[in-house]
Amino acid sequence: MIVLYILIGLVVILVVLFGMMIRGYSNSPRPHRSTPKNFDIPFAEVRFPTRNNCKLYGWWVHVKVESNTVYPAIVLVHGWNRNLERLLPYIDNLYSRRYNLLAFDSRNHGSSDEDGYSSMLKFAEDIFSAIDFLQGQPGVDKDKIGVIGLSIGGAAAIYASAKDSRIKKAIAVGAFANPYDLMFAEFEKRKVPSILTKMFLKYVQFRIKTSFTEIAPANNIKNSKADILIVHGTNDEIVPYEEAGKLLNAAGKAKVQLLTLPGSAHSNCHEHPAFWEEVENFLEKWN
Fold it and tell me: What angle in degrees, to the nearest 10, is found between the helix axes of 194-208 and 2-24?
């Protein structure tokens, strides 16, 4: 009887831990508080559809169209459990350099529609939808479309560039090589039993209807035709700097560069003295 109670207790503990793991990777939509107006930058609030007819909320910041002049367009993608407000420093810096800019909330984030579980794949699908939106906007050079993504948004940018040839440049800031490895390591640090972690990761793949192996940026980067700039801080405690090396090594002959930012962490790469000069150098050279 004592053995039975012990087994029941263990099952209860495992169920509770599993529930905590699920909640730990759930996100709560948080609407933005600031807008480009805080930087005296004109913008339009837009909503555009995903390919499964959800609606994404975004900010369209465009260069004033003069006659038939067209300008490059950059899609800006936030990270996990954030919203497009996180992209305001990027809008502030890129607007003066005459880029059309589209920042948006990914599904289940900010002011966009909810749609089941979030995943890197959904972030990438939302990037495709953002590019669809750009196709119908005046003043956009359709041959000069880029993506800048942060964290999971950066990983999604790499994956998206391998699947959508309309993306000519991708900048991934603090991106990971494989979501499975990153999540496994995170649970390992928290002393979660590996068998439970493996069960949880199988459950996640079941819910997002694809395998981590299939969508891992490291397994797709070599197929990208875009120019890619990987940006990573050496003091990143969320996505270790080693992830950047994995991506670079996996790129093969793809056109990939690595910008290492000594001392930068996961969320402050844009504050490094070298960041904006290197980003501008990368963006100004279009094929």
Answer: 50
